[in-house]
Amino acid sequence: MKALLRIFTLLRVLVRHRLDVPLLRQTIPFALRLAIWLMPWRHLVPVRGSEPQRVKDALIDLGPVFVKFGQLLATRRDLLADEWVEPLASLLDKVPPFSGQAAQVIIEEAIGQPVAEAFKEFELTPLASASVAQVHAARLSSGEAVVVKVIRPGIKRVMYRDIRLMRALARLLNTWVPDFRRLRANDVINEFEKTLYDELDLQREAANASQLERNFTGSELLYIPQTYWQYTNRKVLVQERIFGLPVNDIAAIEAAGIDRKELARVGVEIFFTQVFRDSFFHADMHPGNIFVNPATPSQPQYMAVDFGIVGSLTHEDQAYLARILLAFFERDYHQIAQLHVDCGWLPADTPVREFESAIRAVSEPIFARPLAEISFAQVLLGLFQTARRFNMQVQPQLVLLQKTMLNIEGLGRQLYPQLDLWQTAQPILRQWYKAQVSPKQVVRQLRDSWPDMAQQLPQLPGLLHKALEQQAQPRELGDIKSEKPRQNSLLPFALLAAGLFTMPLNWLWLWQHAPLNSLLIIVALFWLWRGNR
Length: 533
Fold this sequence. Notes:
Layout: H1 2-16, H2 20-24, H3 30-38, H4 41-44, H5 51-62, H6 64-75, H7 82-89, H8 100-111, H9 115-118, E1 119-122, E2 128-129, E3 133-140, E4 145-151, H10 155-176, H11 185-199, H12 202-215, E5 222-223, E6 236-240, E7 245-246, H13 250-255, H14 260-278, E8 281-282, E9 290-292, E10 302-304, E11 310-311, H15 315-329, H16 333-342, H17 352-363, H18 376-388, H19 396-415, H20 421-436, H21 439-456, H22 460-472, H23 477-482, H24 491-513, H25 515-532
Parallel strand pairs: 5-10
Antiparallel strand pairs: 1-3, 2-3, 3-4, 4-6, 7-9, 8-11, 9-10
Helix pairs in contact: 5-6, 5-7, 6-7, 6-11, 10-11, 14-19, 14-20, 15-16, 15-20, 16-17, 17-18, 18-19, 21-25, 24-25
């Protein structure tokens, strides 16, 4: 019965906002088209506003889960036309707060003690309320000012119900509207579900905050509030309360004497440091989650909150992304195309020359503008949209990266419109990439891999013997013709044998008198080990 009532609510919202109009423009079955034409609301309910605005209003009417879904869609610029992005991006979690007494009950059940014992003060009126949780101001019995984030009661059940409804709608639209399939609604809903359920776990959010705090230990660029773990679990999060200036309050920032140009530059540096140095970045950096410390006007410092959504890149993704961005601003389109294939974002059989030509057609108009006006996020968007035509699969980590880059870019240019993001980011990218290919980094990687290599060493003589036997066995002519050319020769096996049998005898002497030879042996061992994994 509840499911039927929810479906009736959905139909009422669709009728109220006349979302049948865009449906009739699609290629749909004749019976469905006729049924829509005969519905009485077509003559009773007028069409008001643009389609994107009507969809935005419909999502608001359907509740917080659909609002969050619209926010996610706004980040998928590879799927939506430009006129749809701004209305969806302006969606806000305007959810009425639940009672402070209900919050107290949840807190006491979660931490196992009365609120009056855990907190010296606790404000029943929330500071802020969103679709997943709300935040109350409090003070610990030891005197520290804190905020208490509490999961909204019953939200998990509501999410489960609405996500099921979304999947049912997606199945119907995929069946009725062939053009709808290009939006890959099932993939988007899966991504949305994972993000939503991650936000339901406040202990996970606290762990994300702790990781970011460790990453910026000793840095004056970014301040992360302290987490009080003794009061934190899946349903309740207690953190230090910060008193910063909203990053989009330009008047307050100027009144505090903070250099807006330097503040914008620091924001870009923080973003690229998180992405390339740490491979762990705050992926929800909209103005409501970012503040500026008024106590340090001479050295601008950001203060971040709400760590429910974070992103991470593999080392390979980091390297390829840095090289792609550097190659783009050097207009090396062939390298960009080849990198997309090399890193596995595109199928191995992609025609690289055709992809290069498509990238050139998209990129050259961008360089017609001054370098300071070129948007990093739009560059990535153009590259990914072009790659989609060549069957690039959705990369969730890159979607989060693009969304965060849009936020950072928007904030930076709001603070200082003349900000040249390329001039700010280029030295960071070049320095990071240079460090990755330095001999020092290679030695560090070998050192870090040594425990795994040591575990493999006892198996190497047997593997070497087996490999040499296979090499020595005569093969039929047909087998030789059908076999692909072998990439590896006997050279690594020979180096391995030399290193393996001489190492116990003269390793210390070799390391003291000929460290280069020792390093070559280690490289050979590592080479073979990597090839056998």
